[in-house]
Design goal:
Length: 264
């Protein structure tokens, strides 16, 4: 079996104190998993990954000289943006149909996917954030990038981008203000999804240690080709640079999670 890396770290200047994350960057999985028993084309769709995010994060990382961590396995295999005890960690159902490679699944295979994909990805995220903290001498700012489908159950979504968060507002309000400033896009605030999810990537790496963060979702049809990706990289890069220059976003401050008390 060839070695399969479950993550990729794009190097940047850790002393700038900015870290980019892309949990769902890729639709790949090791060849022995086939297509998890799904039809041809399933892995080209949004159910397998966040369309447009890999090239967008590569361009943002280059423009900002910021380190980035990319997840290199499809979320259909195991979802890196779910806690280890989340029942949707390995999806039984996708698009209303059973995922044959995921259900039924043995405890051994469940543990295998945690050990081989999920945990190494999160170790890479922890390590990259720790390096940025050490090199910059302050709390880093973490920006997580995702994308969402333009329509849900046949209803078009009005937002061009969305800002999802739990309860740490530090990066959120300045970001929304800067995104809305040109007046040409509609920005969702905790829509179409609520950003408070116990055990997810932002909870674990940012809410718990008190690191300022925000999760940005871009609508997939806007970044489905190279021109769209370039336009959104150009739109977001200066905004993220402005956020990263704000001292308030580089202090450790823990906010209570809307999902309940912290365990640790
Ligand atoms: Zn995503």
């Amino acid at each position: 079996m060839r070695h399969y890396s479950p993550y990729e770290i794009i190097s940047g200047k850790p002393d700038e104190g900015l870290v980019l994350l892309a949990d769902h960057a890729m639709n790949r999985l090791p060849p022995e998993y086939g297509r998890l028993g799904l039809a041809d084309g399933a892995f080209e769709r949004h159910i397998a990954y966040d369309i447009g995010i890999e090239p967008l994060v590569r361009q943002l990382s280059a423009a900002l000289d910021a380190p980035a961590v990319l997840g290199c396995f499809s979320r259909l295999l195991i979802d890196p943006n779910r806690g280890e005890d989340d029942p949707t960690l390995i999806m039984k159902i996708s698009d209303g149909a059973i995922v044959p490679g995921n259900h039924p699944i043995t405890d051994e295979e469940w543990q295998n996917r945690l050990n081989r994909f999920h945990r190494p990805y999160h170790r890479a995220v922890s390590q990259t954030i720790a390096e940025a903290a050490a090199a910059s001498g302050k709390a880093p700012l973490v920006i997580s990038l995702h994308s969402f489908t333009p329509a849900w159950k046949g209803i078009p979504r009005p937002w061009h981008a969305a800002v999802l968060w739990d309860n740490d507002p530090r990066a959120v309000f300045p970001l929304i203000e800067k995104l809305e400033a040109p007046g040409d896009i509609v920005v969702g605030n905790n829509e179409p999804y609520d950003g408070a999810l116990r055990g997810d990537t932002m909870y674990r790496h940012c809410m718990m240690p008190g690191i300022a963060h925000v999760l940005i979702e871009v609508r997939q049809d806007l970044i489905s080709d190279a021109a769209g990706v370039a336009a959104w990289a150009e739109r977001l890069a200066p905004i993220l640079a402005e956020l990263n220059a704000m001292p308030a976003l580089h202090a450790y401050q823990r906010y209570p999670s809307r999902t309940g008390a912290y365990d640790g």
